[in-house]
Amino acid sequence: MLLLAACTSSPKQSDTDKQNDAAGQNGQGGNGRVEQAAAPDTSGMVWIPEGSFMMGTNNPEFPDASPVHPVTVNGFWMDAHEVTNAQYAEFVEATGYVTVAERALDPADFPGVAPEMLVPGSAVFSPPDHRVSLDNPLQWWRYVPGASWKQPFGPQQSGELDPGAPVVQVCYEDALAYAKWAGKRLPTEAEWEYAALGGNPGHTYYWGDELKPGGEWAANIFQGNFPEGNTSEDGFTGVAPVKSFPPNPYGLYDMEGNVWEWCNDFYRPDYYRNSPSDNPKGPADSYDPAEPNAVKRVQRGGSFLCSDQYCIRYKPRSRGKGEVSSASNNLGFRCVADAPPPPEPKS
């Protein structure tokens, strides 16, 4: 838990409003105060028109994404790309917000762990220098003291933070706090999938049926033997700056690969069996049989560590999940907004 959690473990709750409060919806964040924006700025956002689609898949590789079921969503605005380091820095400067990975750890949350080990930090992908079996992620993840959105690899990293790259090392409440400040919100899982499909359902990949259309990589994913043999054939070893790859038909970038993105829905593997068809908001509570006491939210889109060899959940309609107080250097987010649609073009 200490290795992969950004800071603290969270108690299981069943009431959505209480969880939102605990996750920062009340405006508190570290030493900062997050005020709700009067209205969202929709520049840099894309209008996603209302519509209906078949959500989920019967692909046996993704058992928690079945059964396929009809869903209708209202129109909404969505960030054209992930929230960047520059955008998050503006939020922190305006509010004084302190992310979860930067806050002191409570020894009560980590019984039996030596006090000198309880220092702020987060999970960093650290590939081994030799081939390993893929049954133990601790062989390529480690907890790095001092790792945060400001220093995704920890204090020892060299070079300046790329302002145009997606912000990473953000927990659920860190993303939620930013969204509130911007007058926006995190997308529902249904909104995210509908937007990612771009009106073109049924393909092997979000962009089509070829992994490399025209011989070019269409997303920032892992090439080579995972985890130690990254060939970086797509031009990036880790996170890529936003808009490095072509957008989908709606004009959205990086809906596959690059960084995982937080959704607002609690995670349950059985939710699709009971999901309402009209603007589903996710279940009332969280449950993951693998970690029954953890509170998890849905994550979508995969990251630069996904490939057909390992972590194939960059593919369409698949689902990810994350404990709400955990972060890593391949996890970010984008926002959506409820605002009037753009004016109809004049004839």
TrEMBL record:
Domain of life: Bacteria
InterPro entries assigned to the protein according to its UniProt record, in alphabetical order: CTDL_fold (IPR016187), Sulfatase_Mod_Factor_Kinase (IPR051043), SUMF_dom (IPR005532), SUMF_sf (IPR042095)
Transmembrane segments: none
PANTHER family associated with the record: FORMYLGLYCINE-GENERATING ENZYME, SULFATASE MODIFYING FACTOR 1, 2
Cleavable signal peptide: none
UniProt region (Disordered), positions on chain: 1-39
Alphabetized GO MF terms: formylglycine-generating oxidase activity
Domain Sulfatase-modifying factor enzyme-like residues, every copy: 43-336
SUPFAM superfamilies: C-type lectin-like
Name this protein carries in UniProt: Formylglycine-generating enzyme required for sulfatase activity
